[in-house]
Sequence to fold (348 residues):
Amino acid sequence: MLLSRRRLNRTLLQRQHLLARVDAPVATMVRHLVGLQAQEPLPPYLSLHARLTSFDPYDVSRGLDERSLVRLLTMRGTIHLLTPEDALALRPWLQPRMEKEIRTNTAVRPVAGLDRTSFARAVAGVLADGPLPQKQLAAALGQRFPDLPATALGQLARVAVPLAQLPPRGKWREPGGVVYDHVERWLSAPSSEADPAEVVRRYLRAFGPATAADVTAWSGVTGLTGVVRSMTDLVRHEDETGRDLYDVPDGELADEETPAPVRLLGTYDNLWLSHAGRDRVTTPGNRRRWMGSNGGAGHTVFVDGMLEGLWRVTDGRVEVIELFRDLSPAERHELDAEKAGIEALLAR
Fold:
């Protein structure tokens, strides 16, 4: 089936639960989205607020404390908020992506040649008495490898070993530095190996229809074309450029005329970081405006399903920095309603 760009836009928004908010527990939404981008503290809260009819930010804090949610370096080598099951299964599958960062990251390069097995044992040894902040972890590793720079050893640890960021990091209105523990010990469960085909299916349920290149852009894992093409249960569509798009058999396609309400999302959100071509939700020009000189010039305003502006938090209020086009009266009304909702969230 030939799918127009607008229909792909509406289908993505529908699967992301951004056409209409839904009543669901936080952990259910986090699992459906296969994790939430959480490099900065606020965006995962904005992501959940935009998708859930009733969202209590303290549910995330309780989840982190109770270990039903965890912060871990995963997709694209960035911190995500995950369910324990996904944290334990996805990180081993994503480790080749981490190895690529080790080879290319100048901060890690001085220690990149260390044997991974012996280094992992060293990290386990320094964490044996309990979690450690980043600087203390680096210093302790420096004592074990006195001829190597401690800072680089600390950076290697976060990439080579699955280290969970512990609360209060990431909790609502509770600032905290980065403190690490091995994710298996923190969650009291062993890691498992994710089934690549099942990961692809879950990606398609949340982001599809999509190409193999899209799955790679989302995950950072290469070599997925063969996996996708071997999955005989997938159905095929085609976009306006003739590219093959894969989907799960029960994947619902949205009507392209479905209205897309205004949504205020964070600087980074799964919605537009998860495809090789981000034209489903932004034009190249507007993406450059978001990037500014260093990337991430502000939180994002989506209007009619597309990136159309930037905003920031100023003294607990939503300040729209820039709109990329004029809004209709109805769109302006929706924007005001979303601003009020975010400000109510920030006041909690």
